[in-house]
């Protein structure tokens, strides 16, 4: 059984975005092309488009504007993975992907859920083996701050408490 991730971010953000439009389910390449068009997404100077994504509980890819909160993209529900995707334009090959979601703090091991969702929707990765940017999230056991572990330095950025080696958002 794949792990499900619940929203663990600030409840004020959840309250602000709930009821707003959720992420679009992408079932095919043409779904993605349609979404890019209607949301007026534009490639940057690198000819790339970054989006917010979640993999919903049913295993479908959902995307939203890059500046959207993951909890809005997921309509507040549990997810199998969450992060950012970067599409090369116009090939729509996925050049970069990360599990960067401070709302859900998914583990790097959630990559297979993303991979399955991408394959199901007929899209493809440039290098399909893992997140190109892996983020390690830990909750501080002392002050409850949400930390991103940098350089395997398992210490809370706010209070210096030691962070556990195991993912701890249960
Ligand atoms: Zn702390």
What does this structure look like?
The strands form 2 sheets. The protein has a 5-stranded antiparallel β-sheet with strand order 1-3-2-4-5. The protein has 2 domains: 122 residues, no CATH class; 35 residues. Helices cover 18% and strands 22% of the residues. The chain binds zinc ion (ZN). Zinc ion binds next to loops.
Q: Let me know the largest β-sheet.
A: 5 strands, antiparallel
Rg over CA atoms? 16 Å
Categorize the overall geometry.
Answer: globular
Sequence of strands across the biggest β-sheet: 1-3-2-4-5
Proportion of residues in helical segments = 10-25%
SSE diagram, text form:
Blueprint: H1 11-17, E1 24-26, H2 29-38, E2 48-56, E3 61-65, H3 70-73, E4 79-88, E5 94-98, H4 111-120, E6 137-139, E7 146-148
Antiparallel strand pairs: 1-3, 2-3, 2-4, 4-5, 6-7
The protein binds zinc ion (ZN).
